[in-house]
Design a protein that fits this description.
Blueprint (H helix, E strand, L loop, with lengths): L1 H25 L11 E8 L3 H13 L5 E4 L1 H4 L3 H9 L3 E4 L23 H19 L5 E3 L6 E2 L6 E2 L1 H7 L2 E3 L20 E2 L5 H14 L2 E6 L1 E3 L5 E3 H12 L5 E3 L2 H11 L5
Parallel strand pairs: 1-2, 1-9, 1-12, 2-3, 4-7, 8-9, 10-11
Antiparallel strand pairs: 5-6
């Protein structure tokens, strides 16, 4: 009887150890550089004038590089400012030419994703890349989905254009997400983007602290850069966020989307 009890106990221990090893093997490990706990990317859409008129001055004062997802027609409105942003080391991403979104937005009814094909969308993105490179001398490697929408067509003919983005860019960023990205798991072609427009630093701090705890990559997304107004990332909030991120005790890596995407692709263990 005693021998049976010992055998059962040994069997239980072996099973427990085996399950533990399997569980550990299934958990992808990821390490940020130089002891960092997490990463933050600041990104802005639409090439709005306020970004180069007032926003980049704040970023440059702290030597922080952001990602700007631009459209060629709006780049032309502040071409000298955008050239200076490139010289300062900010990343230029692709945000299409005409910003197509669902026709349920009345302002996009004549440029509705429901009326696009995959071929048309691919042509728009590649043309935007060529035009941006001609204007600014850099070819975008990252993309942000206009309105955060990733489809073309309607009904049974609806298709995702995420594979198109994956074939052209190293990353594609969404909009109005609720969670940070897990660097060991996330799909680079559909990174989550969390809105920072209209928010104070205290509202974003819990998201940052959660990402610190879980070793995640927080991609923040905004539009205008100023003090007040619709779709505006507040400069006062940015100042607090940058100072928090640059405090060595918080162990945060703050860098453009493409910089972090390349690091993640080189260091994680899962295959794309």
């Amino acid at each position: 009887m005693q021998t049976k009890r010992i055998s059962s106990l040994l069997y239980f221990c072996i099973v427990l150890l085996t399950c533990s090893n399997i569980s550990s093997a299934q958990e992808p490990a990821f390490t940020w550089p130089t002891g960092k706990k997490m990463a933050i990317s600041l990104s802005f859409d639409d090439a709005r004038a306020s970004q180069v008129d007032t926003g980049t001055a704040l970023l440059d004062a702290y030597n922080v590089k952001a990602t700007f997802y631009v459209q060629p027609p709006t780049v032309k409105n502040r071409l000298d400012g955008w050239k200076k942003a490139v010289t300062a080391g900010h990343e230029i991403g692709n945000h299409s030419i005409s910003h197509p979104c669902s026709g349920n937005f009345l302002w996009s009814r004549n440029n509705a994703l429901e009326d696009y094909s995959l071929r048309q969308m691919k042509n728009q993105l590649e043309t935007a890349n060529r035009q941006i490179e001609a204007l600014l001398g850099v070819k975008p490697e990252v993309f942000a989905y206009p309105c955060g929408q990733t489809f073309v067509g309607r009904g049974k003919n609806t298709k995702s254009y995420i594979p198109v983005v994956a074939g052209i860019f190293i990353s594609g960023r969404g909009w109005l997400a609720e969670s940070a990205n897990d660097p060991a798991f996330c799909d680079m072609a559909q990174l989550t983007g969390i809105e920072m427009d209209g928010k104070d630093f205290e509202e974003l701090l819990p998201l940052i602290q959660s990402a610190q705890k879980n070793g995640q990559w927080l991609v923040l997304a905004g539009h205008e850069m100023g003090n007040n107004g619709p779709q505006t990332t507040r400069l006062a909030m940015l100042k607090k966020l940058i100072e928090y991120a640059q405090d060595p005790t918080n162990k945060i890596w703050i860098a453009p989307v493409g910089t972090i995407a390349r690091y993640v692709n080189e260091h994680r263990k899962i295959a794309e």
